[in-house]
Amino acid sequence: MLRMQFMPSDFDPQLLVLGDKADMGAFANLLAQFAIHPAGAILNQSGVFSEDTIVNLQPYVADADMALGLWRDAGDTGDDTRLTWTLTPELASKFSTAVRKIAADTKLSGSAFLEVETLNEIRVHASTGEFEADFLTGDAR
Q1: Cystine design at 96: which of 31, 51, 79, 108 (Cβ 3.0–4.6 Å)?
Q2: Which residues pair with 50 in a beta bridge?
Q3: CA atoms within 13 A on the CB side of 121
Q4: Could you read off the pLDDT of 77-133 as tens digits, one per residue?
């Protein structure tokens, strides 16, 4: 099961995305599909499970005063953490390639950091085989 959770930190906040190699392949496909047809999507409704994090994937529009990358929503005051991940098709394709590499690697574990490298951006840490299978679900959190 592909799962995610926001990991807050004063110095290195991350969205941790975990799954096995097949899950990472599905995540890579999701990003590749976004690169081809950049339309808004909620990751939670696209096969990424989370108990407390909601991520809105949206296309970057240059004239709309948007910031590239992953950011916490300004109105995030509820029980769930709400994040918006704004990408260009080129970035989505680049991230898809990085995730596909860890999905296809013969090593038992691997990870990729997906980031635009903007100051204070939340990094996406896609990982396979580095955490227990039930990490981020139920009592293991």
Answers
A1: 31
A2: none
A3: 18
A4: 677 899 999 999 999 999 999 999 999 999 999 999 999 999 999 999 999 989 876
